[in-house]
Design brief:
The chain is α+β, with helices and mostly antiparallel strands and 163 residues long. It contains five helices and five strands, in the order E-H-H-E-E-E-H-E-H-H. It has a five-stranded mixed beta sheet with strand order 1-2-3-4-5.
Length: 163
């Protein structure tokens, strides 16, 4: 396989952040990224990391970093199964349209199986038709019957104050 996944190290965080910014532009949300390399690293380090991140490397000599994937594992309480949730996958702009995204998704699917997962899932920003077509070409199907919600800022604080 001409790509490999390697765990990020702290010095990779500027690269990951740049990919995240590129992803936000593609999704039509260029000003939405407020993370810093330090805040991203804090999510991956410490006694209870909140996820994992891998750098997607083109397997050449020397290896070339072409993107990253951020993911975590979670249980399904209904089925008792473990799933890989793909938070972000990003192939940097200079390396797109070469089939590397398909190879990275295949490598992530293999990692999910190696870790005992039943499947993997992710979200796509409404209107990102190119991403939806890409995922459907991989054999993915849209989830139906589920809407996402969020509780942030003042609403989060108001609810917490009732505890």
């Amino acid at each position: 396989m001409p790509i490999r996944l390697r765990p990020v190290i702290e010095s990779d965080m500027p690269f990951v952040l740049e990919g995240t910014r590129q992803l936000a532009v593609v999704e039509g949300r260029p000003g939405s990224v407020t993370a810093t390399p330090e805040t991203l690293w804090s999510l991956l380090s410490g006694s209870r990391p909140l996820g994992e991140c891998v750098v997607i490397e083109h397997d050449s000599t020397p290896p070339v970093d072409v993107g990253h994937a951020w993911f975590y594992f979670h249980p399904s309480t209904f089925s008792g199964e473990k799933w890989l949730y793909l938070e972000d996958i990003c192939i940097h702009q200079a390396h797109r349209s070469r089939g590397l995204g398909r190879l990275a998704m295949a490598a992530l699917a293999r990692l999910a199986l190696e870790r005992g997962c039943t499947g993997m899932h992710w979200s796509v920003v409404s209107g990102n038709d190119a991403a939806m077509r890409f995922y459907e070409r991989l054999g993915a199907v849209p989830k139906t019957g589920i809407e996402s919600y969020k509780l942030v800022d003042g609403a989060l604080e108001r609810l917490a104050s009732r505890a």
